[in-house]
Amino acid sequence: MADQRSIGIVIASHVEELAKGTYLLLQESAPDVSITYVGGTDDGEIGSSFEKILTAVEANDADELFAFYDLGSAKMTLEIVQETSDKTIHLMDTALIEGAFAAAALLQGNYSLTEIKKQLVPLTIK
Amino acid sequence: MLTTENTVQWLTKFGEIISMNKAYLNELDSRIGDGDHGSNMVRGVEAMLAQFEAMEFNHAKDVFKVTAMALLSKIGGASGPLYGSAFMEMAKVAETNDLVTILTAGLNGIKKRGKAEVNEKTMIDVWEPVCQALAENNLTKSIIDQAVQATKPLKATKGRASYLGERSIGEIDPGAMSSAYLFEALLAGELIDG
Asked: Which of B26, B89, B120, B156 could form a Cys-Cys staple with B161, CB 3.0–4.6 A?
């Protein structure tokens, strides 16, 4: 994977299937972007898991990540992961699917971090 | 005076009150949220109690750290990172052994994590008046109860309940209720001087 992008994406949802579905959608348009996803609690119920989100961040090939989430507890848990992990995490307050999709497509197109952040501003909803 | 022993007793009591009120917390949450606050809190406090059984502590600081990680890891809802942040911040200042300093640090941890202030129908609406009353050395059960009841007329502007808009008015905030149990457990212990 010589042309793998240096910035990756992590998706954190309350629901495993929602996270996976978002991943599948993104991956189609961004085959060279490392995308990891996580959803649900440790027991597979609806919610957020600190350990699972941390694992999804650490498992990503990139050391710098855009992080997208659905609702509040995923965001707050991501913030704690952001403080815990050595990786650089850009937590994005955009609509989950639109924001993550735009970031993935732009990363695939070799846009810079600054350019991508600028393009995502209108998608900010939270 | 805060000691390792009475901190463990306080939080054990908190765990017991949460478990007894699991159904009630779920019911409160089902009115303005996703109905799982009781189940989530029970999962968190059970993990905390299991750690208390398994571990020896040298200082209240370590009790708070273990509590923070158990609640953060196991609750699964928004209260996980919120209670987790509160206890993490409390651990940082636990060596003062001063309850007002410690709980105020917890309150500030919740405010920072939830980006919320008072009157947004959250657990802060209980933590803030409790910290104030403790600082004035007059924390009572009725102050805690009043703080919980005072969340009823508020409209939620933070958390899942905020999506309901006006419909959140008239209900008790579940996080305020579970926070009240934490402070009821505190009153039941011998941690408060005076």
From this structure: B156
